[in-house]
Amino acid sequence: MAIKSKYQNEQLDTLLNELLIVLEKNKTPVDLSLMVLGNMVSNILLNNVNDPQQRERLAETFSQALKNSLITKH
């Protein structure tokens, strides 16, 4: 999703593949997959970012990056 990242593509690809394997193994439908991933993002922000304003900024940045990634994929 991110164009620039401090993480190596290899690390990102490994985690992405592991998450996809879990979703595929459970034959998770698209809507449930999105619900689970959305809850995961919310939990990560709520449990790791104490400042509500910073959480809001990160959520907004994440949301925009997701939208941008969909535009560039077409």
From TrEMBL:
<dbReference type="Pfam" id="PF07208">
    <property type="entry name" value="DUF1414"/>
</dbReference>
<dbReference type="InterPro" id="IPR023202">
    <property type="entry name" value="YejL_sf"/>
</dbReference>
<comment type="similarity">
    <text>Belongs to the UPF0352 family.</text>
</comment>
<protein>
    <recommendedName>
        <fullName>UPF0352 protein NCTC12872_00786</fullName>
    </recommendedName>
</protein>
<dbReference type="InterPro" id="IPR009857">
    <property type="entry name" value="UPF0352"/>
</dbReference>
